[in-house]
């Protein structure tokens, strides 16, 4: 009789352990899926950042020419203003 009780308890524990392992596997599956989604999103962000860096480099490379052009236009405007005031 005590043996039957022990066997019953052991069977219940085994069933609970199986259920716990199943839940753990399911949870790990969800976590790994979420990590894969995050990895994909991070890769997309990395790609966008690389594109942004290239565009910023192009803009910065154009800055000296743009600044020079603005300086020339300001000088021409100052000359025109001086002519108009005379």
Task: Explain the overall architecture.
By secondary structure, this protein is mostly helical. The chain contains one helix and no strands.
SSE layout and pairings?
Elements lengths: L1 H84 L1
What structural class should be given to the helix and strand makeup? mainly alpha
Sheet with the most strands, sense and barrel status: none
Q: Low-confidence parts lasting 5 or more residues at pLDDT below 50?
A: none
Ends distance = 121 Å
Binned strand content:
under 5%
- Return the average pLDDT rounded to an integer: 93
Q: Secondary-structure element order, as H and E?
A: H
Rounded to the nearest angstrom, the radius of gyration is: 36 Å
Q: Report the strand count.
A: 0
**Helix fraction bin:** over 70%
General form: rod-shaped
Counting DSSP H or I runs of 4 or more residues, the number of helices is: 1
Task: Describe the structure using short key phrases.
single chain; about 90 residues; mainly alpha; about 0% strand; rod-shaped
Give a nutshell description of this structure.
The protein has 86 residues and is mainly α.
């Amino acid at each position: 009789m005590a043996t039957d009780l022990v066997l019953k308890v052991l069977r219940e524990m085994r069933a609970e352990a199986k259920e716990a392992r199943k839940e753990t596997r399911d949870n790990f599956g969800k976590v790994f899926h979420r990590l894969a989604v995050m990895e994909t999103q991070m890769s997309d962000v990395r790609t966008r950042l690389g594109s942004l860096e290239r565009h910023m480099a192009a803009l910065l490379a154009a800055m000296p020419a743009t600044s020079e052009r603005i300086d020339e236009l300001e000088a021409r405007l100052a000359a025109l203003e001086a002519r108009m005031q005379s």
